[in-house]
Every structure is written in C-alpha cells, then in structure tokens.
Hints:
Number of domains: 2
Bound molecules: S-adenosylmethionine
Structural class: alpha/beta
Helix content: 25-40%
Strand order of the largest sheet: 2-1-3-5-4-9-8-10
CATH architecture of the largest domain: 3-Layer(aba) Sandwich
Number of helices: 9
CATH superfamily of the largest domain: SPOUT methyltransferase, trefoil knot domain
Number of strands: 12
Amino acid sequence: MLTSAGVFDIFPRLVCAGIGCIYGCSTGRLRRLSHNDIGITKGGKTRFIGVGTMLIDILTIFPKMFEDVLNTSILKIALQKGVVRIGLHNIRDYSTDKHRKTDDAPYGGGPGMIMTCDPVFRAVEAVRTAERKDSHLVLLTPQGRTFTQKVARELSQKSGLMLLCGRYEGFDERIRTGLKPDEISVGDYVLSGGEIAAMIVVDAVVRLLPGALGCGASTADESFENGGLDYPHYTSPTEYRGMKVPEVLLSGHHAEIEKWRREQARKRTRKRRPDLSDEQADDSDTQNGEERRD
Ligand SMILES: C[S@@+](CC[C@H](N)C(=O)[O-])C[C@H]1O[C@@H](n2cnc3c(N)ncnc32)[C@H](O)[C@@H]1O
C-alpha cells in the first residue's frame, strides 16, 4: 500500500531502467511518485530506487508486494544511502497476450497453471542490459539449493542479482533448462509465490553490503557468520519480573564480557544446533547451569 506520504518519495534518486535515465537528481529535488509509478515497469521503462553499487532486479507478476518491504528499516536506509539499487519488473509487461497472461494449463493435465516461457524469457532478456551483463540470475524454487547465510554472503559478492519469482504451480521446465539460473530455495516448505522468498534473499544479502547497517552495527557476531549462533542479548532494565541481567554484562570488564559472550554463543550453538559447528561446541557446555536451563 502506498502511504499518504508516497512510498518512495524519500529516496534521493530514482533511476529509470530504460535504461539509465535518472529521475530527480538533476534538480536535486525529491520526486513524489504516483501510485502507478512505483518501481514498476511501464511500457519498457522501469523505475529504480537508490543509486548504490549493487543492482538487484526483481522479476515478478506482483511487484507491488515489495513496496512496504523496500520502504522499511534497513532496506529503506540502504536504498537511501545508495548501497544498493533495486528494480522491480512486472513480467506481465513482457507478455504478448492481449490479457497480459503469463500462465497456461499444464500439458498432460493436472491441477493448477504453469508460468509460460515467453514472458519470462523476454523479461530476463530485456532486463539484462549492458549494465547487468554480469548479474547473477536466481530462480526462486522450493527445489533449489537451500538459502543459508553462506549463500547470502556468496550472493552479496556479486555485482548484481536478477531474482525470478514464480507463481501458480511454478515455471515451465524450459525456463530452468534454457536460462540456467541459480535455483534457490528459502526452505523445505512451499510458498504461494517467489516474492516472499525474494524478499528474504534481498533482505539477507543487502544487510551484508558495506554501509548497509547503521553506525557501529556489524554482522560479524550474528548467527551463522562464524558457523554458530549469536550470544544472548540483554538491555534495560537490569531486572525484569525477577529475571536479572548476568552480572558480567554490568561489570564494565570488556575482556570478561567478550569471554562470556563467546562461551554463551558456543554453548547455545552446541545445544540448539549441534549440526552447525563441532568446533564451536566445546566441553565447557556441561559446566554452565544457565545454558542448561534454556
Ligand atoms: C506454489 S509454488 C510451486 C511449487 C512447485 N509446484 C513444487 O512443488 O516444487 C509457486 C512458486 O513459489 C515459489 N516458491 C515456493 N516455495 C518456495 C521456496 N521454498 N523457496 C523459494 N521459492 C519458493 C517459487 O517461485 C514457485 O515457482
């Protein structure tokens, strides 16, 4: 939904994919967009949000699903800071069907509809301009390799991503064999479409980009970054309903705090996710009463 202020009017520049024309920057004024304008390809032009070095293109039949997600919190700030540019492309714009159809019934019968080849091939080819010649094509599918923090980091090293979102019963198989995308699944469950999966990928990747997180924030200690889980966090008050903040965190002794956190992270990993890291899970777990009560 568009907010009364206009979803993307906070962004400093809007780049039109057509490809490379820039809205708003020549005058330096922010440009208020109409509802129809927002990040959606129209007549071959796609508006981009942000001016960052990484370029993420999302190909979907429901681009509006991304509006609030891109206009919230870290993604919004990353776009404002120019850490990333994101383009939303409506696959329907590449359908030659007069009703902008992008699906058809499966050969051989069976339930549901299948996304047809032509609009998807045409969309991918149109979006893959010179600037995106090295963009990494990702097809969201429950049958792909599992998306993990490691994969997020791998994708964050790419110059660009093109995320292809499916709907219905999924894609015609020739989209997979013809375009040879990197097939990625966000988990062993089936979503109604690839949009939420794409949002997961965008969120996890963008927060890894240099400058995406706020001042002093870091992904270094976060879960999965060092093979294990993050340590427990506490904030004010020092006591809540009888539950106290561990003394060490109030001690001001940085070396002790660091040691405690490392131990807690190891113990937590060993207890909750022993599959993650054998090296993290040491024998000290058995000596800690607090973690055993979890
Ligand atoms: C209903 S699903 C199709 C599922 C497909 N018939 C199957 O069983 O493998 C429709 C679309 O949602 C997306 N999707 C669903 N689950 C997903 C997951 N776990 N990871 C990534 N994308 C997913 C894909 O883009 C998929 O084409």
